[in-house]
Design goal:
Layout: H1 13-44, H2 54-70, H3 75-100
Helix pairs in contact: 1-3, 2-3
Domain Chorismate mutase: 7-97
InterPro entries: Chorismate_II_sf, Chorismate_mutase-related, CM_dom_sf, CM_II_prokaryot, Isochorismate_pyruvate-lyase
Keywords: Isomerase
Amino acid sequence: MTSAKLPEQCETMIEVRAGVDQVDRELVALLVRRFGYMDAAARIKPDREAVRDEVRKAEVLDNVARAAAAAGLEPDRLRAVWNELVEQSIAYEFDRWDRERA
């Protein structure tokens, strides 16, 4: 499989969609890795109450907002995307925590 063109090189919607599809595949691979860390957290955390950590969630969202702003993106838009990602990660971690101790 060949690499998709960079966005600034695209001249057709076929090229744009190929690029988006490639990025989506790369994002899924990264999410697999991220959720692997949720598996580790579920294994390591001593009790179920430790799964939801609002201080850490706020830190993650602030980090993303700063990185988005530095990259020229809208911090609030990325914060919203990451809020959902973090909430899904927490739900996943609760499931894994429960399964580890069932």
